[in-house]
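Tutorial handout. Part one gives the primary structure; part two gives the three-dimensional structure as tokens.
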Amino acid sequence: MRESRASFGSFSTIPRRVKWLIFAGLFNNIGIGYLLVYLTAFFPQIGVSPGVVGLLLGLEGVMLFLSIPLGIRSDRRGRKKILLIGSTVVPIPMIMMALTVNVPILVVAALLFGVAESAFLATWNAMIADQTDLTNRDASFSLSFIVSGGGVAFGFLLPFFLPLVAAMTGIGIVPIHRDLLVLVGVLSFFTPLMVYATFKNYKETISPRKLIRGPNFRILLKFSGINSIIGLGAGFIIPLIPTWLFLKFQLPDTVSGPVLAVSSLTIAMAAILSPRISKQLGLLVAIVATQGVSTVFMLSLALVPTAAVAIILYIIRAVLMNMASPLIDSYLMGIVTQEERGLASAINTVVWRLPNSVSTIIGGILLASRIFDLPFYLATGLYAVAIVLLYSQFRNIHPNN
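Part two.
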């Protein structure tokens, strides 16, 4: 109990503007959570091929290369406008995907969503880091992870209630799904409104240098390169877990959605302990330890005999792996200078997501071919390689700003 109170107490050190920024993202995150279930679980139920689902996820990820020029611009000219534009665009592809299953239109929506995510990734972590220091940065990134995870979890949970709504209204489940996606898309417009209200009088520090290669650029590339191995491994199966549950165990989105919701909520609650673990073990060791244990549970998913066991093991794996996520963000922002943070966030994300997007397409093809174990073996092997490299290459590099 005492440790839990200490973990919550660390959030009191977070600057007020950072807290408002974190909670502003809640509406976008709810919509994104429901959209992911809609794509990966509902689409296969209405006849959309898992291969198409993998393609859409992959194309969205490929567009993240735009976050690199956006990250450079945010370092030079400021981050606020880019974040506002990106968060405003997010609802548009949601509404597009709700209105059609026409593949060319879905492709355009996926690409547009990738553009919006690029703007977010080029600015979000850097804005938090710019307004924090080593005393409150771990707590700030942990709170950001908790709130975003909670929002996504709520979006995941929404399909659970749809059969009841259908029974009460007599409306078919398909139009209810589509109307709900339109609704969460419209609600997502609250995020840019809150960001604008929070930062309308905020004066950003603009770098006078035309910086592309900063003093820590080589360290950044090494860190991001190792992280890309994790991204490559994860892509084979993690974005496609609802599709895997449907094809292997015949679980519809009314089950897989709540499973993802419970997983995300558990992850969010576990992230409360992330700053505490970092203080006890050290930031890098905490990252490596949680990722390493989670990899064991990743391997076990290839061998599960029943849906119940699969769900339990998946949740445990997700909690352990994602406890490291806010710590990774904090670590990266602490080993680069302020003038490099937008670019660092962008590069780290791009080199994670591009291989992740490619492997997601391959994972969709494997699942469509009813090959259910190989994606987990591929992911496990790549995770193990990345974790060993991360510790061996960065054990003597510590955050300093």
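Part three, for discussion. Residues 15-201+209-394 form a domain with the Growth Hormone; Chain: A; fold (CATH 1.20.1250.20). The chain has one domain: 15-201+209-394.
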